[in-house]
């Protein structure tokens, strides 16, 4: 059983943070590897219970001649930390195992933070030095065939449980290697969780469910960590089981539960700059795979062209996310991405193209209390002159969880209209 971590701020300074602790743990790490090598045991393939006796003995050896005095509880902590180092990701292991932790953030070897309920807190953990942190980073990227070094200082990767990892190392990172882990939820959030948590009223969720079933092409927007992917996962649950879905992501983290799903993931360039597979190439290929809907994890570049073409040419109900602060900001960003792709369209033609492709924009936001909420739903109804026509279905202040009375009537009206459309479609079938 893992010895619990000390509570931040409780009692004396955590022994985990001292250089003496780190030095003893480093000696114990070398000692236990020597013991395992002598018996021909591959540490990575061994079970935690099999290694505990060796780890306990190695800690005893490392403490001999050391000025560090540990009580029984602290010695148990060092044994567990040593086991984490041998078969896991060292100081990150207890954080990855904690179901209340949403994000893990490492700013150099001595500053480790977690996000819980939307708020950051510093943890009483550290790496020994930059080399220790880099060794852990290489343990993450090595099995994936990725490379992180001075020539390739930035990397996106994925842990075996689906958690998304971003890595930046020197010389780009000035204060030591930086690591960010967005943990994959073991149990995905549901629409009922959003309602119970105050992220959206029930009738907003009902509207979004109806829009997805009615095959609205949808763009989910918001800032970093605002809950875009979480909402996309929930919306995907309303897609009919009979439909064929193709997903495209930089680091696969979507949790679609339909049976007929094909998951595609981009690939960065190799050390020689070749063999990269971009989101745009995957979008082009996806169009040849007879998808009913395409789910693009995030549109951030030239793949915007293929995404909008798919939405406007028979792949109704496709969904993507985009970093933007409002529906109009999202539309302006799409125009910019299309322009960067080299399309020779003049502004009015670009706007007609976008308006003919996207039906609905859903904005999510994280408030000062850490809670993520759906704050704006707008339908894109075309272009008038030089301006997009947006119909606000739902809008609220990110800090106010209550339904605004002004939005209630049109929302209910649209729900009734959508229900009538579904009934007419069923009768026609």
TrEMBL record:
Where in the numbering of this chain does the Bacterial type II secretion system protein E domain appear? 88-362
Read off the InterPro entries from this record. Answer: P-loop_NTPase (IPR027417), T2SS/T4SS_dom (IPR001482), T4SS_GSP_E_ATPase (IPR050921)
Gene3D superfamilies in the record, alphabetically?
3.30.450.380, P-loop containing nucleotide triphosphate hydrolases
Q: What family does the entry list?
A: Belongs to the GSP E family.
Could you tell me what this protein is called?
CpaF family protein
UniProt organism field: Plastoroseomonas hellenica
């Amino acid at each position: 059983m893992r010895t619990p971590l000390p509570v931040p701020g409780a009692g004396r300074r955590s022994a985990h943070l001292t250089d003496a602790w780190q030095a003893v743990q480093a000696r114990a790490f070398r000692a236990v590897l020597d013991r395992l090598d002598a018996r021909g045991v591959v540490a990575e393939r061994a079970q935690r219970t099999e290694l505990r006796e060796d780890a306990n003995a190695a800690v005893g050896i490392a403490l001999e001649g050391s000025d560090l005095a540990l009580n029984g509880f602290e010695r148990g902590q060092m044994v567990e930390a040593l086991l984490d180092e041998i078969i896991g990701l060292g100081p990150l292991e207890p954080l990855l195992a904690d179901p209340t932790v949403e994000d893990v953030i490492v700013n150099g070897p001595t500053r480790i933070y977690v996000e819980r309920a939307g708020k950051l807190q510093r943890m009483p953990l550290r790496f020994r030095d930059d080399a220790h942190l880099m060794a852990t980073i290489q343990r993450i990227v090595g099995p994936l065939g990725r490379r992180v070094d001075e020539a390739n200082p930035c990397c996106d990767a994925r842990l075996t449980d689906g958690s998304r990892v971003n890595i930046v190392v020197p010389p780009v990172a000035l204060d030591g290697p930086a690591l960010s882990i967005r943990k994959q939820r073991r149990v995905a959030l549901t629409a009922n969780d959003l309602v119970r948590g105050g992220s959206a009223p029930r009738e907003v969720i009902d509207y979004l469910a109806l829009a997805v079933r009615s095959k609205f092409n949808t763009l989910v927007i918001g800032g970093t960590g605002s809950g875009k992917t979480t909402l996309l996962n929930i919306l995907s649950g309303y897609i009919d089981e009979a439909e064929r879905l193709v997903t495209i992501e930089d680091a696969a983290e979507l949790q679609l539960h339909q049976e007929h799903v094909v998951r595609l993931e981009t690939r960065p360039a190799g050390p020689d700059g070749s063999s990269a597979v971009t989101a745009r190439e995957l979008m082009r290929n996806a169009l040849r795979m007879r998808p009913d809907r395409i789910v693009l994890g995030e549109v951030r570049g030239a793949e915007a062209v293929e995404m909008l073409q798919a939405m406007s040419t028979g792949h109704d109900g496709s969904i993507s996310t985009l970093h933007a602060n409002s529906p109009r900001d999202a539309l302006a960003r799409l125009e910019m991405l299309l322009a960067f792709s080299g399309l020779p369209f003049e502004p009015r033609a670009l706007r007609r193209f976008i308006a003919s492709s996207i039906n609905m924009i859903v904005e999510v936001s994280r408030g000062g209390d850490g809670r993520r909420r759906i704050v704006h739903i707008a339908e894109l109804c075309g272009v008038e002159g030089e301006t997009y026509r947006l119909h606000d279905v739902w809008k609220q202040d990110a800090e106010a969880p209550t339904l605004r009375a002004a939005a209630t009537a049109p929302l209910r009206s649209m729900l009734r209209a959508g229900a009538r459309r579904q009934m007419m479609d069923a009768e026609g079938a």
